Structure formats: C-alpha cells, structure tokens
Amino acid sequence: MLSITPGLWLPESELTERFIRAPGPGGQNVNKVASAVQLRFDAAHSPTLSDEVRRRLLRLAGRRADRDGVITIEAHRFRTRERNREDARERLAGLLRQALQRPKARIATRPTRASRERRLASKRQQAQRKQQRRRPDGE
C-alpha cells in the first residue's frame, strides 16, 4: 500500500511498475541493468479517488497523464532499482497530496477610492513630467 495521507492510501493493485534501462551515462552496467522504473497509475478508473480529486490530479499531472487518464512517472535519478522505485512512488504521492488540497476560491474585490485617486495622481504627474521635456512652442 502506498500511503498518501493518514486517511488515504492506494492499494498495490492500482499501481503497475515496469523496470527499464536508464538513459544517460552509467559505465559498464548501463546496457545490462534495468534500474529505472516506470510507475503507472490509472487515475481515471481508480475507485480510491473522488471525481473532484481525480480532475485536479489529471490537471496537475499534465503531460505525464495520457488521454485515457493513466499517469506515468519515470524515475531514473538514482543508480539502484529500489531507490528509483521509492522516488517514483514518492513523486506520485506528492502529486496526490497536491490534488487533495481544494484551491481557495478567489473573492472579487474592487479598488478603493484612495487607490484610484493615487493612480490618477501619479498619471497626472507623469504626464506633467513628459510635457516639461517637450520643446517650447514659440521658438
């Protein structure tokens, strides 16, 4: 089980791991050892998530999610399979924690009378400054 918060965890059956060869330099072992991990989570069909959290998760995942709603996270930062596996799981958990937080609703506000007057006064001052830089008309 992958623990997200104290009250939410994902069962192992919803996660699919595949080990692949890591890109980049790696010495003699690079072509022999599959140490990178590809973690897949089908968010669109997960019974664990609510619709609201699912929508936020897919939006946050961006291009890591395909059009079927499957999120794929690749981890190849470390040299060992175990550490890459932990890294991928932690990144998925972080995404889920972010999706669980409901965004704050924006409250529309209007500028105060004083702020409008300050803005207009600064505009008048700037216009006067530019006017004083012009050449005199009569000469």
Q: Rg, please?
A: 27 Å
Helicity level, as a percent range? 25-40%
- Count of DSSP-assigned helices: 3
Question: Beta-strand percentage?
Answer: 15-25%
Unreliable segments of 5+ consecutive residues: none
CATH topology: Double Stranded RNA Binding Domain
Spatial shape: elongated
What class would the helix/strand composition place it in?
alpha+beta
**Mean pLDDT across all amino acids:** 86
By CATH reckoning, the class would read: Alpha Beta
Which architecture name does CATH use? 2-Layer Sandwich
- Number of structurally distinct domains: 1
Description:
The chain is an alpha+beta fold and 139 residues long. The chain has a single domain (2-100), classed as 2-Layer Sandwich (Double Stranded RNA Binding Domain). 37% of the residues lie in helices and 19% in strands. The protein contains 3 helices and 5 strands; from the N terminus they run E-E-E-E-H-E-H-H. It has helices at 51-61, 81-100, 113-133, and strands at residues 2-5, 8-10, 15-20, 36-42, 70-75. It has a 3-stranded antiparallel sheet, covered by helices on one side. It has a two-stranded antiparallel ribbon with strand order 1-2. A hairpin with a 2-residue loop joins strand 1 (2-5) and strand 2. Helix 1 packs across helix 2 (81-100). It is elongated, with a radius of gyration of 27 Å. Pfam families: RF-1. Residues 21-37 form the Prokaryotic-type class I peptide chain release factors domain. It is an enzyme of class 3 (hydrolase).
